Q: What sequence folds into this?
């Protein structure tokens, strides 16, 4: 389907000068983009470099102290009882605050074949037979585990980082059909495409380290210097997107770089969307919802440092921007997810730096989940938010079966019931139904947590069994499961 013409598609909500002064409302709201602030702080890469510098400072100290390669003990089943999971009796560092979620298994990164540790992304795949697998990103590659019916991880092997690249913690994983796509912030890594069906024949007694030349299906090289911040998949439309592919000075400006996957052995790029510069993360899918102007168009919701930017990418050689909207407290727009892919009326979003920056609704240092009404794609409205009762920084979140699953760094892993949002988009009805704090190292701090880039990076909660994998920066991978789900959320249309 053709895109709306440029004059109607590029209606930006933006202005220069004073947007940063509009604060103090009791309810968070969308605001026009402050062009001068955006140019000097975000488009310049200054804010991104500030955050990267803070992360490197924390991680360099941990690396020097041997935290990432320590031999953390394997942990078995331990229930959440009286607000704690006691994995090892009397061991404070293996006692985790919790609610409504049990620990089933833990394996350190070193037990998952890594020489560097430093966990990041994770993504799952269910084989046609029903067997459940998860890929666990580490600085030196991706580890593969099978999740048994008892909730145990069985290590099967790994795909190392591309042989032209050096290890780096930023490694992002997504699954397209039976294939895993692996991107990295390392130069000359490119995007690896790996056939997950290879895992089904592995004897776990003999884990396999796959060859980065012979054992991959393909390697997408059409990136400026071979690095990408993230990889986004639109399986229904048979393409992927590289986002944040440095440098910003490239013709694509680290925006959306489209990758045609119709020939998985020979992926090619039909073009890119550079109009709003750097894209940190995105979600792309066929539009189904109340805005009839875009019915069945292909839409990307971009999380672009200081804005929610919505693109029409139906023609991936000539993508256009529908709207670009900032919000109160914008410090580093990070990631988000639509509530219902089959009726896109709301989405949720997080900002990775508003807690650290003490900005807007996150002034208190408690993670904020922003709620957006996207019924009118040209004029998205921020209708409210949920403030976490925990102290820390938010990171990645995904929606499944009426719950949002959040990995919020040092505060750990959290599950929210969001089924109230369509009827009450203020967020007043959103509530936490489960959590496990997998980073007890900061529990004794005055606020019960820390504003630091530690703990849980990602989770994968879309396995039919209900088991959830949490990938942590320092330790390794946890398998957990909720004791009971919200009755209201179970069977909800919201999510995947």
A:
């Amino acid at each position: 389907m053709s895109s709306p013409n440029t004059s109607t598609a590029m209606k930006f909500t933006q202005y220069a000068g004073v947007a940063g002064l509009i604060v103090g409302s009791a309810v968070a709201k969308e605001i026009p983009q402050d062009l001068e602030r955006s140019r000097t702080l975000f488009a310049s890469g200054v804010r991104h470099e500030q955050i990267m510098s803070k992360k490197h400072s924390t991680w360099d100290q941990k690396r020097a102290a041997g935290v990432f390669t320590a031999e953390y003990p394997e942990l078995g089943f331990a229930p959440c009882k009286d607000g704690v999971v006691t994995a090892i009796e009397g061991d404070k560092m293996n006692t985790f605050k919790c609610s409504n979620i049990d620990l089933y298994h833990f394996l350190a990164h070193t037990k998952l074949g890594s020489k560097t540790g430093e966990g990041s992304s994770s993504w799952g795949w269910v084989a046609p037979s029903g067997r459940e697998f998860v890929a666990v990103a580490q600085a030196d590659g991706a580890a593969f585990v099978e999740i048994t019916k008892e909730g145990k991880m069985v290590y099967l092997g790994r795909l190392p980082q591309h042989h032209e690249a050096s290890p780096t913690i930023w490694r992002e994983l997504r699954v397209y059909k039976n294939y895993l796509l692996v991107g990295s912030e390392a130069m000359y890594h490119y995007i690896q495409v790996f056939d997950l069906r290879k895992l089904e024949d592995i004897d776990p007694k003999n884990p396999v380290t796959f060859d980065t030349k012979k054992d991959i299906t393909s390697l997408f090289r059409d990136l400026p210097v071979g690095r990408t911040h993230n990889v986004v998949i639109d399986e229904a439309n048979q393409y992927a997107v590289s986002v944040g592919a440095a440098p910003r000075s490239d013709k694509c400006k680290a925006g959306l770089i489209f990758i045609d996957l119709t020939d998985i052995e020979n992926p090619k790029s039909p073009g890119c969307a550079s109009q709003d510069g750097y894209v940190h993360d995105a979600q792309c899918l066929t539009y189904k919802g109340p805005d009839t102007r875009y019915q069945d168009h292909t839409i990307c919701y971009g999380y672009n440092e200081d804005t929610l930017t919505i693109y029409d990418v139906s023609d991936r050689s000539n993508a256009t921007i529908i709207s670009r909207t900032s919000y109160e407290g914008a410090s580093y727009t990070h990631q988000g997810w639509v509530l219902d892919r089959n009726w896109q009326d709301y989405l949720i979003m997080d900002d990775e730096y508003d807690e650290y920056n003490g900005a807007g609704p996150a002034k208190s240092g408690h993670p904020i989940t922003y709620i957006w009404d996207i019924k009118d794609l040209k004029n998205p409205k921020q209708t409210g938010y949920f403030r976490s009762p925990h102290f820390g920084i938010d990171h990645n979140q995904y929606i499944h079966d009426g719950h949002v699953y959040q990995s919020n760094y040092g505060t750990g892993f959290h599950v929210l019931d969001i089924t109230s949002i369509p009827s009450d988009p203020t967020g007043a009805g959103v509530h936490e139904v489960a959590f496990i704090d997998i980073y007890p190292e900061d529990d004794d701090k005055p606020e019960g947590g820390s504003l630091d880039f530690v703990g849980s990076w990602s989770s994968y909660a879309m396995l039919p069994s209900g088991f959830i994998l949490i990938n942590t920066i320092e330790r390794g991978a946890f398998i957990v499961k909720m004791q009971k789900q919200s009755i209201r959320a179970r069977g909800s249309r919201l999510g995947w």
Remarks:
- The two ends are 25 Å apart (CA to CA).
